[in-house]
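Entry 14. Ran structure prediction on the chain below.
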Amino acid sequence: MNLTIVGSGSSGNTAILQNDDEALIIDCGIPVMEVKKALGFNVRKIVGALCTHIHEDHHRYVKDYDRMNVPVFEPYNSEMDKQVRRYGNFVIKAFRLQHDVPCFGFYINHPEMG
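Output, structure tokens:
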């Protein structure tokens, strides 16, 4: 399992947690073309995307993932009893964080992570 930081900072935040077969996008603040490049254009391996909160540097490109039919987990738009999701072999549980807007972190489990 590898973690690739595509971008981090006020201009945009996106990371990719991936193995050879699956990729999970964490935050949607960097243009999708940059994510595609980071994946060697193997977008079929994207099983889902997570978005921590609605600030533009984390949320700006959510609609692009929607257009690609990639499920996006936005826990700030969900009821608390729906805060666990499964994308491919990734099991994700959201938890609340303190910020100036509703914000969530994620416990991420995958068989390759032990």
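Residues 32-38 form the longest helix (7 residues). Will compare against last week's run tomorrow.
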